[in-house]
Design a protein that fits this description.
single chain, 591 residues, alpha+beta, 6-stranded mixed sheet
């Protein structure tokens, strides 16, 4: 629990200083500035001045006492509202909206409406008094005067929700499923507190400036009007995504810190298993450990849309496999890393099936087209997969195993206990040795055949990583900033570094694929022996390597994996693709 809270707190801190929060920073800063105009001297109104004595009087009446200054607590009200709004609606927002049959984007528009109302309240005092009315019955003298600031925080919390990474993803998924437990609540509160700390510092800085700078004290009314106008303009800018261009133009200077904190091994273990209690013991295992461990009862294989390679399409029940050693392999057919691991898995299935090994492939789709049973069946046949394959289209089993990788292999012993898992490629010799150990533990008298002799293709060192053509998931992109889901014109930069790609001509950058338009070109500087790309549509794609045309690929039909480069040895090269309009690219893989 403490580790989870620390991950949430650090993730929130990183989010609060990331580029995605920059558009709302002016609002937070100004929220700590000029307070309500009824606040007395602290808001800019002068106290009543002492009256001079009347000539001839022997005694002078004392001046009226100066009213005490009221401390401006607006920064705290804003941040408190943000934390409450974020925590509540992130966890329960989707569930409530679904139960009421309301659109999922309603909360965003509520946040924008609150931002407009607060802005109008700063411009027109009667509107602010209306916003403060719900707090008027609270007996504390000043609390009702911070009502509009609290409402502003509530609105900012709704607008702030998209600004996060893996931590918020774990929170959102749990909230969407209604599977809320103590860990999820702790993670949510810690994340909200982490985001609140830098924002509160910023708001307090705004308050201090307002109190110390003469212009704030003498021109409080004008500054309030200016702040109100800024909030209204910001609300419309957010509504029409005008601020996106600013965010795209800025580098993600928090990516390294986010990866180190939220994408660390410890964070993955913590964040990937928050949905239920059935799989918590999986954290006792370590990715690719060199020994067998006891990691709890194997989670169920459920939520399966269809089974392939079983009699009559019947499901495989793990409970019925007691006495056997089970290898569960998470894969997806367009993933080149999965395809490279298949020869080892097929060899183990052939060598050890008669000795008590049961291989189950769990096909967890990465793209929508991979959910179609016909596509999976065709590709499984082409790849020579003959063992049972479960179509995990809703990623239910994926979540049961706290998995986040393609491929991933889990070894289950004859008693139904998870003993080992390996994420990604590699360690095939070690995995086979552990399979043999488990088979001997299940049947000490077994006489196993010689090892399969499969050798790993050790090209991972320095090889360009898999790269998705997705405006949300792309990495290593350089050049003209991406425009989401709209056709736009791009230009190559002067230089494309290693492991980076760029666009030229007309492209539409979508959520899960890029679509080529007029004069579309794509350049990629890579290091590998082989280059592949999942493509769909109709038309030719000309492949150039280091400026020389090497082949023309004819793309036809639904998404399929196409080989672009097939070299003899790993090398650094500059790839250029000239794609016909309408051709779609999904993901690059390298071998």
């Amino acid at each position: 629990m403490l580790t989870l809270i620390l991950i949430g707190l650090l993730g929130g801190l990183i989010t609060a200083v990331s580029p995605c929060i920059l558009p709302v920073l002016p609002v937070v800063f100004l929220a700590g500035g000029p307070g309500n105009e009824a606040d007395g001297p602290a808001a800019g109104k002068p106290a009543t001045a002492p009256q001079p004595a009347v000539p001839g009087d022997t005694l002078v009446a004392p001046a009226a006492p100066k009213p005490p200054a009221v401390r401006n607590r607006r920064p705290y009200a804003v941040v408190t509202g943000l934390v409450i709004s974020f925590s509540f609606f992130t966890l329960l927002g989707v569930t409530l909206l679904s139960a009421l049959g309301l659109p999922q984007d309603l909360l965003r528009y509520v946040g924008l409406a609150l931002l407009v109302l607060i802005g109008l309240g700063l411009i027109f005092p009667p509107v602010e008094r209306l916003l403060e009315k719900p707090f008027a019955r609270i007996p504390q003298r000043q609390v009702n005067k911070e009502g509009s600031a609290f409402a502003l925080g509530l609105g900012l919390g709704l607008l702030y929700v998209p600004c996060a990474g893996p931590v918020l993803a774990a929170i959102t998924v749990a909230g969407a499923r209604g599977e809320i437990n103590g860990d999820i609540v702790a993670l949510t509160v810690a994340f909200a507190a982490g985001t609140a700390i830098p924002l509160l510092v910023f708001a307090l800085a705004g308050r201090r400036v307002a109190e110390r700078v003469a212009a704030f004290r003498t021109r409080a009314r004008k500054l309030r009007i200016g702040a109100g106008l800024l909030m209204v303009v910001l609300a419309f800018a957010l509504a029409f995504n005008v601020t996106d261009a600013i965010q795209r133009a800025l580098p993600d200077y928090t990516s390294a810190a986010r990866k180190k904190i939220e994408d660390s091994d410890t964070a993955r273990q913590q964040l990937s298993g928050l949905y239920n209690n059935s799989n918590k013991e999986l954290s006792k295992c370590e990715d690719g450990a060199d020994e067998l461990r006891t990691c709890g009862k194997a989670p169920a294989i459920d939520g399966i849309a269809k089974w392939l390679n079983t009699p009559g399409g019947s499901p495989v029940d793990l409970a019925s496999q007691r006495g056997k050693v089970v290898l569960v392999d998470f894969w997806t057919y367009s993933c080149i890393n999965c395809q490279r691991s298949l020869p080892h898995i097929k060899a183990w299935n052939t060598a050890y099936k008669a000795y008590g090994l049961e291989v189950i492939g769990v096909h967890s789709p990465e793209f929508p087209f991979e959910k179609k049973a016909g596509n999976v069946a065709d590709q499984a046949k082409k790849l020579g997969v003959t063992y049972p394959v479960a179509l995990d289209n809703d990623l239910t089993t994926w979540d049961n195993y706290r998995n986040r990788y393609w491929p991933a292999k889990y070894l289950i012993d004859a008693k139904g206990t998870v003993r080992y898992f390996k994420f990604g490629e590699g360690k095939y010799d070690q995995t086979e040795d552990l399979i043999r150990t488990l088979l001997k533990q299940a049947n000490p008298q077994v006489q196993l055949p010689p090892k399969t002799g499969q050798k790993a293709d050790d090209l991972t060192a320095g090889r360009t990583p898999e790269t998705y053509l997705s405006h949300l998931r792309i990495r290593g992109y350089v050049g003209t900033p991406l425009v989401e889901d709209k056709a736009a014109t791009y230009r190559f930069p002067a230089e494309i570094p290693l492991n980076s790609l760029s666009l030229d001509g007309t492209w539409t950058a979508g959520y899960d694929h890029f679509t080529a338009g007029k004069d579309a070109r794509l350049a990629f500087t890579y290091r590998a022996k082989n280059v592949n790309l999942v493509m769909a549509g109709e038309g030719p794609v000309t492949v150039l390597v280091d400026g020389k045309a090497t082949k023309t690929v004819q793309v036809h039909g639904t998404p399929s994996l196409y080989s672009l480069v097939d070299g003899d040895t790993p090398a650094r090269a500059e790839l250029e693709l000239r794609m016909a309009p309408g051709v779609q690219g999904y993901a690059f893989t390298f071998g």
